[in-house]
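PROTEIN SPECIFICATION:
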Amino acid sequence: MRYKNLTVIGTSHIAKQSLKEVESTFLKQNPDIIALELDKKRFFALTQENRATKLSFKDLRKIGFKGLLFNLLGAWIEQKLGKLVGVKPGSEMVVAIKLAKKHKKNIALIDQDIEITLRKISSAISFKEKMNFVVDILKGIFFKKSELKRLGIKEIDLTKVPSKKIVNKIIKEVQKRYPNLYRVLIEERNQIMASKLYELMKNNPEKKILAIVGACHEKDIIKIIKKTKPIEEKITYSFNIQ
């Protein structure tokens, strides 16, 4: 999606299609700034040889038990799915970082600090949402086809970014069954990322900006930038990686 000097790509973090789209869009547009759905911690984790998440049980006091459990479980699921399609989670971000380094472009990290997000999840997620999570995991294991049918989805090709129609259905289902998780994980982060992108656009009106975010964020980020003044966010990491 494009708006003024901003182009936003919605990706799947384990889809081969996303890797190709990031590279082709970069080479076609030759942007001046690459904005990534990352914070400083995840950026450095991706650019190190050991790309596994650095969070462990030592972080329990900072992010809470539910936040830690959510992160570990989410990372495990992503790793398993990534192995099925032969793509490490976050590989599209790595492609963007390498392209920026090769072509001497600036990088902006637009996401909220992962520890803040996980701490919010830990305090916000309800007992009902935790039970829904367990139920949905079991349904996904034993009744995958019937669950996809219920959502009106024939099948999901993990090597490709889901269509906007499928993304919208999944987002609505998350919003319905996990309202607090949706608010923290998607809604609030959309506001933060839109705010940072808005500031980048305002401060660099003559420069082309390419933003790479998860497919579930793409539509609403553009909508927020168009319709409202983004909220203030204290820190936007932006630096040259020559």
Notes: The CA atoms of residues 10 and 73 lie 23 Å apart. Confidence is low (pLDDT under 50) at residues 230-237. Strands lie at 2-3, 6-11, 33-36, 106-109, 209-214, 237-240.
